[in-house]
From TrEMBL:
It comes from Hoeflea olei. One of its GO terms (cellular component) is cytosol. PANTHER family: 4-HYDROXY-2-OXOGLUTARATE ALDOLASE, MITOCHONDRIAL, DIHYDRODIPICOLINATE SYNTHASE. Keywords: Lyase. This is Dihydrodipicolinate synthase family protein. Belongs to the DapA family.
Length: 305
């Protein structure tokens, strides 16, 4: 991959049958729908893919299936996070061998209090960097409980050739993005945000070149990034304001369940099942989600009908 990935690279949900089995045909339909949404890349096996509820065998199945079905139509980013450096390295090597364009990793953590010192985190990424030749995206997210300082992130970018993308979705992400770009900008191909684009305008102001959202409605969010980067900040702001109620509802009320509910409503997948101990969203939350999605004429609501 020579041209940097920019704009929007959403996370694919993992569809399950009502009994909890992986829905392989549903996964293919998810990939097709996301490509029709005009995404610039697709991220699989991420937190919003319920990666923490998948077995190793299911991960391998979904990775192979997704990469084969995407068939080069868009780049596919595979999340390979694990506390074990050995496991994270093996996952990254397997992803590359199957055709992944990039991998994404969180820092090693287990629970809220078991994580290495900064040097251990650096060595974790270094081991993976040395084992593969495709880009690595560092995911800096509150879920890990790990504080990754700008100095550490900049060191990763400067000293590890493949570490060239950063997804910053911690509190005050814009300030952190700006500081990271100032510290290591020439080594960074892709400064991104996350959190369903809830802080997207501020993050674009800080220098972000794209966003990693859910698969809920990337066709409506991508124009925000494209307009902003083309210099039309007024159009970017206007589109973001249109999208913000749905972004906020997804981010604060629904989480990873939002894309599944909308995808089921639109016939993309047959079931919006989430694996236990996760629970379905309440009917009240679901009704508001679908109302906001209909008002925006979200593509996924009609894709399979």
């Amino acid at each position: 991959m020579t041209k940097p990935i920019e704009n929007i690279l959403p996370v694919a949900p993992t569809p399950f049958h009502p009994d909890g089995r992986v829905d392989e045909e549903g996964m293919r339909r998810v990939i097709d729908c996301m490509i029709d949404q005009g995404v610039d890349a697709i991220c699989i096996l991420a937190n919003y893919s319920e990666q923490f509820l998948l077995s190793d065998e299911e991960r391998t199945l979904l990775m192979r299936l997704s990469l084969e079905h995407a068939a080069g139509r868009v780049p596919v980013i595979v999340t390979t996070s694990h506390f074990s450096t050995q496991v994270a390295t093996a996952r990254a090597k397997l992803a590359q061998s199957m055709g992944a364009a990039m991998i994404m990793m969180m820092p090693p953590y287990h629970g809220s209090g078991l994580f290495p010192a900064p040097q251990g985190i650096f060595e974790h990424f270094q081991a993976v960097n040395d084992a593969i030749s495709i880009p690595i995206m560092v995911q800096d997210a509150p879920l890990s409980g790990v504080t990754m300082t700008v100095d550490l992130l900049a060191r990763l970018a400067r000293e590890l050739e493949n570490v060239s993308y950063f997804k910053i979705e911690c509190p005050f992400a814009a300030d952190k993005l700006a500081a990271l770009i100032e510290a290591a900008g020439e080594h960074i191909k892709g400064p991104f945000d996350g959190e369903e684009a809830v802080t997207l305008l501020a993050d674009l102001d800080a220098g972000a070149t794209g966003t990693m959202t859910s698969a809920l409605f990337p066709e409506k969010i991508r124009p925000i990034v494209a307009s902003y980067r083309a210099g039309d900040t007024a159009a970017a702001l206007a589109q973001w304001q249109k999208c913000l109620p749905l972004i906020n509802h997804e981010n604060r009320q629904c989480g990873l369940r939002a894309a599944k509910v909308v995808f089921k409503e639109g016939g993309v997948i047959a079931s919006d099942h989430v694996r236990h101990p996760l629970k379905p969203m309440t009917e009240r939350t679901r009704e508001r989600l679908l109302q906001l999605a209909r008002e925006l004429d979200v593509m996924a609501l009609s894709w399979g009908k």
